[in-house]
Design a protein that fits this description.
single chain, six-stranded antiparallel beta sheet, three-stranded antiparallel beta sheet, globular, Anti-ECFsigma factor, ChrR, RmlC_Cupin_sf, ChrR-like_cupin_dom, RmlC-like_jellyroll
């Protein structure tokens, strides 16, 4: 299996390791860890090296977080982080397109999600682009699946808050890069963005959204 090239940022990994990250984003990070030995090592090192630092770090203290990251980068290098690695998490039974979906995500998903149909399993939001009828809200984050047919573009849009995508099947590309199975794409508020399916099979992503999307016209103005 090809290893992911795009990862959650360190703030997300630290939040996950400390138990302070919101539940929706923790679900995405935990699923990414099943694909990514590098992030498993990094999370294990954060857990081993930080200890009580997490409890002492004020919420929203960005200067303190930056200093913590700088310090941990030095410690990770000195401690040879690969030695701290946890064993890979197993892939559970059940699949998308014949590919196993990792836990913990698999336990959250319904059984019938593989094929777009007219029964409410998927709803089309643009030609060749669907959102799953399955949807959850955890700690203010909306979670569902996004599906893109090969070459199908997601309408251009602007984020009003964080958006995260984890590729579960196929691949997609946007103005920032190309993303395959296990990769995480992370967008912050006020990011303009469009994506399209970039594999022969449909691309399916775990899709997390804080806030709402503003769709744009060809000139980049709100539609």
């Amino acid at each position: 299996m090809t290893l992911p090239l795009h990862h959650p940022d360190d703030q997300l990994l630290i939040g996950y390791a400390s138990g302070q990250e919101r539940a929706g984003k923790s679900l995405l990070v935990a699923t990414h860890l099943a694909y990514c030995p590098d992030c498993r090592r990094r999370v294990a090192s954060f857990e081993a090296l930080c200890g009580s630092w997490f409890e002492e770090l004020p919420c929203n203290d960005h200067d303190g977080l930056d200093a913590l990251l700088d310090r941990m980068d030095g410690l990770l290098t000195a401690a040879h982080a690969p030695a701290e690695a946890k064993p890979p998490k197993p892939l559970a039974a059940g699949s998308l397109g014949g590919r196993p979906v990792p836990e913990p995500l698999r336990s959250w998903l319904p059984e019938a999600i593989d094929t777009p149909t007219d029964d409410g399993t998927w709803r089309e939001i643009a030609k060749g682009v669907w959102l799953s009828g399955w949807e959850r809200t955890l700690s203010g984050t909306t979670i569902c699946l996004l599906r893109m047919a090969s070459g199908a573009p997601v309408p251009a849009h602007r984020h009003t808050a964080d958006e995260l995508l984890l590729v579960l099947q196929g691949a997609f590309s946007d103005e920032y890069g190309s993303y395959a199975v296990g990769d995480v794409a992370q967008y912050v508020a006020d990011t303009d963005h469009h994506a399209s399916g970039a594999s022969e099979e449909d691309c399916i992503c775990l899709f997390l959204l804080d806030g709402v999307l503003i769709f744009l016209d060809e000139a980049g103005n709100p539609a």
